[in-house]
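TL;DR need structure tokens for one chain.
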Amino acid sequence: MVSKEYKRDSSLREKFQLLRSITNSHAESETSIIEDASKYIKKLKHKVENINNETTSEQYFCDPTDPMVTVDTLEKGFMIKIMSGKNEPGMLVCVLEAFEDLGLEVVEARVSCTDSFSLHAIGISNNDDAECMDAEAVKQAVSVAVRTWSDSHDPRGGRISDSTGKGT
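>> reply
TL;DR here they are.
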């Protein structure tokens, strides 16, 4: 009959071997294996911090409230993504009007308008000149429409008056 102590020691040895293999340690003693594991964990933690910092800097390279527009060409149409750190009433309508002006029919869309604004849409051209429309033209038109809309609203969401004194 195998003693409890022998089972415990055997289980502990197996766990140290597993730890040794996971951390790529070549150490023999349990203390050295633990030290190597600690270094490995610190290295992983540093990698995660670097990835988080890169992601944060990519997301906020510009002003996070400025809309970021990306457009990818699909086989029949475009994948349009718009993200902004702020959401103000009317932004979605502005974007959809820009699609309409471009002659794009939205066939699928996912929108979030809670605290921030996020739109992922697939648009196909309903014009005969679809071949002459490229992703850069779509991106420029949507970007201009969103920025024009944003510029016409003050930070509190109200409209800024034009030269006639009326709201735009």
